[in-house]
Amino acid sequence: MLVEKRKTSSAEIPTGSLADMAFLLLIFFLVVTTIGSDKGIDLVLPPEGDVKPIPMKNIMNILLNDNGDILIDEEPRLLNQVKDIVKDRVAKNDKLIVSVKTTRVTPYRVFIAVLDQLKQADARKISIAEPDK
């Protein structure tokens, strides 16, 4: 008597092409995705050691305190006023140096916002003072 073998079909899902599809998806996302890079602050720093005396009439002081308040020549100002004030002062004195001083806990976003305002006001000479310890 001839017994026939039963052909049993397995209930597996073919996974042979799954690795290929995962690899293709990985390549697709690597090619399509753009990674943002932080460009930092675009400032040209002078060489170390150059110290020149500067007349006080050519210096404009901007102080950013712990709370993020902006003081221009010791008077509190709003952020949206900085551009106009600096632009007016630069127009009157082309040798004006804007000195920006912060504290150690000044919010970074306020510092960047003030630097943006100075850039929009065409202030070419900006001094960033080291915070007090």
The helix/strand series, from N terminus to C terminus, equals HEEEHEHE
What topology, given as strand order, has the largest sheet?
3-2-1-4-5
What's the oligomerization state? single chain
Distance between the termini: 100 Å
Mean pLDDT: 86
Secondary structure: number of strands: 5
Task: Give structural attributes.
rod-shaped; alpha/beta; 133 residues
Summary?
This protein is an alpha/beta fold.
Describe the structure.
- With 133 residues, the protein is α/β, with parallel strands linked by helices.
- It has helices spanning 18-32, 79-92, 108-120; strands spanning 59-64, 70-72, 75-77, 97-102, 126-129.
How are the elements arranged and paired?
Layout: H1 18-32, E1 59-64, E2 70-72, E3 75-77, H2 79-92, E4 97-102, H3 108-120, E5 126-129
Parallel strand pairs: 1-4, 4-5
Antiparallel strand pairs: 1-2, 2-3
